[in-house]
Amino acid sequence: MFFAQLSNLQMRIAAGAPGIDLIASEMFPSDGVMGILGNPVYHATNKEGYPTRGGSFYSHYEGSDAIESLAIEQVTQALGCGFANVQPYSASIANLAVTHALGLRYGRKPRIFASDTAGGGHFTHGEGDHLTSALVENVGHILLTESLDVDYAKLKTMTQEKKPDVILFGGSSNIRQYDFEKLSGIAKSVGALLWFDSSHHLGHIIAGHYCKPFPHVDILTSSIHKSLAGPRTGIIAWNRSDLSDPINKAVHPGIQGEPNLANIAATAHAVFEARHAEHFKALSKNTYANAKHFAHALMQHGLFVVGQGTDTHVILINVDKLGLTGREASDALAKLKIYANQMPLPEDTAEGITDKERMSSVRLGTMIETLRGRTQTGFSELALVMADFLKALSHKKRERGMLDTESDLTEDFLEPFESRVEILLDRLV
């Protein structure tokens, strides 16, 4: 079932994808994962229910429970926790299920502290129009320091004042690693549960390069297809036995019916690879090293890197310092086949969070380019091209008083940069 070598197919897909991919939330699945997802047996197999609750309602496929049990075993062993649910269709569904489970546990809307999207959180943490916002009482947002680390002193004060039921960390643009032991102490001081959404970091957690959440957190949710290079699905993990019944009921039958057995089997494979394959551990280590080097190189060439660096694979460039919006910068970079995405920052206004044209930063990630073989030298060259281009873009906007990334980015303006990017695409150093 498990493959010892890095997938040739994964490498070919990565090498053949157009452009320079710096999307922090993307990763190519391994050969083993793709093989499982393409196996018709898993897609033809029906299953409803849990292995520990009398098994599937479909008795003619006894192997389905064994596959799910294997995936649960892999997840719990990898994370060092007691329990896991591998049925959620995505991390968004996992977050919704946990929110629903907390309502079942408390018999009311749970009072929750969470990071908002401008603070690196995610809209599935009880924000905006997402269904989770109707299921929780949001009593405050987690405050960050200028370096985007948690302001632990303020969090402690707010926790004592508001007494939330749950403190939720993690999300889309975390450049810092959390002090989970300190967070656990703050949560326990008021009897709150500590929940970590590890969607962008799960692969690095299992590979040993992001700090271990357990035993300090009570609940962990995650997607599988990002840094873990697995299928597009989600998991929930936890350590307290009193959470098992509400969480399992919230997933099935509360939200979902039949799970995707192919995703469950592929999850088992992806977790096994992250735990045991030396190539994956090396990829995670090099991804982090490249991110630190890339961030430093971007700063050397005059760009404002939020927090003066990163402790993860994620980098944030504050392009507002150049008079640009995240949308303008990311759209313009895409013209050069350099792919990144805009993100809000804590200083953005509420309007800036919801208006996708006015976010202040561009988010970068180093995992796919590291997989392709780009080294620190290559990232240094890329940083210089990006810095020169964004400065030229800033100058053009100042000259004209506005910027239209469709009409203003003429062939004459783009050509000098396109030729430099083509060189970077032709060789990986």
Relative helix content: 40-55%
User: CATH architecture of the largest domain, please?
Assistant: 3-Layer(aba) Sandwich
SSE series: HEHHHEHEHEHEHEHEEHHHEHEEHEHHH
Number of strands: 12
Largest sheet: 7 strands, mixed
**Average pLDDT taken over every residue:** 87
SS-based structural class? alpha/beta
State the domain count: 2
Q: Spans of 5+ residues with little confidence (pLDDT < 50)?
A: 1-6
**Rough outline:** globular
Using the coordinates above, name the CATH class of the largest domain: Alpha Beta
Distance between the termini: 34 Å
By CATH, the superfamily of the largest domain comes out as Type I PLP-dependent aspartate aminotransferase-like (Major domain)
Strand order of the largest sheet: 2-8-7-6-5-3-4
Structure description:
This protein has 429 residues and is of the alpha/beta class. It folds into 2 domains: 39-276, 3-Layer(aba) Sandwich (Aspartate Aminotransferase, domain 2); 278-426, Aspartate Aminotransferase, domain 1 (Alpha-Beta Complex), CATH 3.90.1150.10. It has 17 helices and 12 strands. It has helices at residues 8-16, 31-37, 40-44, 63-79, 91-106, 132-135, 152-162, 180-188, 202-207, 244-255, 261-276, 278-300, 326-335, 350-354, 367-372, 376-400, 411-426; strands at residues 20-21, 83-85, 111-114, 137-141, 166-170, 193-197, 219-223, 234-238, 314-318, 338-339, 341-343, 361-365. A 7-stranded mixed beta sheet has the order 2-8-7-6-5-3-4, with helices on both faces. Strands 9-12-11 form a 3-stranded antiparallel beta sheet. A two-stranded parallel sheet has the order 1-10. α6 links the parallel β3 and β4 (137-141). The radius of gyration is 22 Å and the shape is globular.
